[in-house]
Design a protein that fits this description.
Order of helices and strands: EHEHEHEHHEHHEHHEEHHHHEHHEEH
Number of domains: 2
Structural class: alpha/beta
CATH class of the largest domain: Alpha Beta
Number of helices: 16
CATH architecture of the largest domain: 3-Layer(aba) Sandwich
Shape: elongated
Strand content: 5-15%
CATH superfamily of the largest domain: Crotonobetainyl-coa:carnitine coa-transferase, domain 1
Largest sheet: 6 strands, parallel
Radius of gyration: 25 Å
Distance between the termini: 33 Å
């Protein structure tokens, strides 16, 4: 397959998750992504293990988010190495970094300096909190930013403590937002030759992610309130949420109460009118919760799904993998690392109906340095 970004060169001065996440997607689209790493040690994310799992000298997490890239090592304090970096910049289309504000300036690699070398560069910087203000030098770590942004008050029930998402949601969202705007900037560059400075932060990303909550708060001047029972979305009325059954759980999305009751036949639910669904949300959910405990997940699905109601079972990953609906998506791929095979997920997009896979693992530290130098030397001869 001729991938859309074939021929685009990306220099990734990035570590951990947000910047490398952007690079992963650009590589999936066919870009030549070169990680610029410290000699010997590489980027810090190589030692960030998930569940203490390692693939080789680098963590399993590093391999999942840095597959299909190359590694070029350089000491940014060494004038000779900087000459190689500047040559690379002259050949690149995109630069990404997610260091704290001021780091790239100290290295002489901030946007204004890079633009002198390559005026058409799409220069993308990701920070924790933006480049100005009292938080700019705070650690830009996902859990900390979830906590500051108010996001931890969206999950769980009313009486629960603040709860974070169980994933690095800010990192992943910010990385993918970066890709969107990089693509936009590359389109403009193709038309006009003009480069761009793109600036994103995890904080702005997570505020944007909560646009429903913030917009409601701006108008009402009141904090949204989670349901006390089966909270699924603080701004939505009953029956929206996840409910326990005799042997598992089901998720019930938006629908008229009486339409739901036509399937589950709950006498106590008939006392409520449709206009009660938000005002008496917790009372209604309590009634539904009690009633659903009288049947199994399968029995409720048999009653609701023939009526095309928005009801689904709640699956764990083992149960999901056994479903035909999962298998037909073909979401798994293999990364080939010496004598080890790592199963991970593929890029979730199809192009012209075709999925695209890459078994190329994350690079070893400096694995491609000499090859890249040789290619650069030929171009500058």
């Amino acid at each position: 397959m001729h991938l859309p970004l074939k021929g685009i060169v990306v220099l990734e001065f990035s570590q951990y998750l947000s910047g490398p996440c952007a690079g992963l997607r650009l590589a999936d689209l066919g870009a030549h992504v070169i990680k610029i790493e410290r000699p010997q040690k590489g980027e810090a994310g190589r030692k960030l293990a998930i569940k203490n799992l390692w693939a080789d000298e680098s963590s399993l997490l590093f391999h999942t988010i840095n597959r299909n890239k190359e590694s070029f090592t350089a000491d940014l304090g060494d004038p000779q190495d900087m000459q190689w970096i500047k040559r690379l910049i002259g050949q690149a289309d995109v630069i990404t970094h997610n260091f704290r504000p001021g780091v790239m300036e100290k290295k002489g690699l901030h946007y204004e300096s890079v633009k002198e070398i390559n005026p058409g560069i799409v220069y993308t910087e990701i920070s924790g909190y933006g480049n100005h203000g009292p938080w700019k030098n705070k650690p830009g770590q996902d859990l900390l930013i979830q906590s500051l942004s108010g996001l931890t008050h969206s999950t769980g029930n009313y009486h629960d403590n603040p709860l974070p998402f169980g994933l690095g949601i800010g990192d992943y969202l910010c990385g993918n937002q970066a890709v969107q705007f990089i693509l936009g900037a590359l389109i403009r560059k193709k038309k006009t030759g003009q480069g761009a400075l793109l600036q994103l932060s995890l904080m702005e990303t997570l505020i944007d992610f909560q646009f429903e909550f913030f917009t409601t708060y701006f108008q009402s001047k009141r904090q949204h309130k989670r349901s006390a029972i089966s909270n699924g979305h603080s701004l939505l009325s009953a029956p929206y949420g996840i409910y326990k059954t005799q042997d598992g759980y089901i998720a019930i999305a938006m629908m008229p109460l009486q339409k739901l009751n036509a399937a589950i036949d709950c006498e106590a639910l008939t006392q409520f009118e449709e206009e009660d669904t938000f005002k008496k949300r917790d009372e209604i959910k309590a009634v539904i919760s009690t009633h659903l405990l009288t049947g199994t997940t399968t029995s409720w699905l048999k009653k609701t799904q023939p009526l095309d109601l928005w009801v689904m079972p709640v699956l764990n990953w083992q149960e999901l993998k056994e479903k035909q609906g999962y298998k037909i998506l073909e979401m798994e791929q293999q990364i080939h690392l010496d004598d080890i095979e790592i199963t991970t997920t593929r890029c979730p997009v199809r192009i012209n109906g075709q999925i695209f896979l890459s078994g190329k693992p994350a690079p070893q530290v400096g694995q491609h340095t000499e090859h890249i130098k040789a290619a650069l030397s030929l171009k500058y001869e």
